[in-house]
Amino acid sequence: MLLLSILLLTSQAKGVHVECGKRPIFDGRVQYSRIIGGMEAEVGEFPWQVSIQARNEHFCGGSIINKWWIITALHCVVFEELLPTDLSVVLGSNDLRSSSVEIKGVTRIVLHKDFQRHNMDNDIALLLLDSPITFNGLTEPICMPRKPSPSVWHNCWVAGWGQTSSDDKNSMKTDLMKVPMIIMDWEKCSKTFPKLTKNMLCAGYENESFDACQGDSGGPLVCTTESDKTWYQVGIISWGKSCGQKNMPGIYTLLENYSLWIKKT
């Protein structure tokens, strides 16, 4: 606890420009590692991850892209017909029951105008917070994907508070869970999912039951490159045929296609 307090105070006192895609608390200590097929996330391991809630209940994930904005899946808010005043964003802790969580209101929802309900194309939305986030190691922004994107991403993960069993709606977690992911070949994936578009990517494991599930939607797929310890958000958890089934990858909104849309907002 003393080390954590020192790190937090130091980061706040410096007041310097915050780099995206960094994990100062998690990467600054030794990790003791202990979703479907998933593991519990460590403190500060995914400081950009947020819980989007309605009536104090988690229903989707999201990620911090700067001190004012959260990025998530459009279907999270459209299918529930939610207004900004219905939403709250919980950040700063892996444990949603913790007294140390920070809660922000939402003043504006920005939906992609070309969202297609029939195939989930352009499944992306932005939430404007009612007050800025103070970055402190437990809350940090994720980097947007580089242009051009690397041909191979290294060390990809998803995290969330969603179901850990595909057939048990009561298996929602209050502790953040993480699963490793492999980005799969688009052409091969399109044979399984004919409605796949070039605004989507597939990720999962061909022979393992690792996946995102209900309640994880809107959360980030994050990766590094082999030569770079910076974390980039590559995708947004969007849809799939089922959770954690072998040879059934999850489908993600391909974030690099929306860099200009995000900048214009």
UniProtKB/TrEMBL annotation:
All residue ranges annotated as the Peptidase S1 domain in the record: 35-265
InterPro entries: Peptidase_S1_PA, Peptidase_S1_PA_chymotrypsin, Peptidase_S1A, Trypsin_dom, TRYPSIN_SER
Keyword Protease applies: yes
Cross-referenced PROSITE patterns: TRYPSIN_DOM, TRYPSIN_SER
Stretches that traverse the bilayer: none
Catalytic activity from the UniProt record: Preferential cleavage: Arg-|-Xaa, Lys-|-Xaa
Entry EC number(s): 3.4.21.10
Record-linked SUPFAM superfamilies: Trypsin-like serine proteases
Keywords: Disulfide bond, Hydrolase, Protease, Serine protease, Signal
GO terms assigned for molecular function: serine-type endopeptidase activity
GO biological process, one term: proteolysis
Pfam family name, one: Trypsin
Enzyme class: hydrolase
Position of the signal peptide: 1-15
Domain of life: Eukaryota
Gene3D superfamilies: Trypsin-like serine proteases (2.40.10.10)
Name assigned to this protein: Acrosin
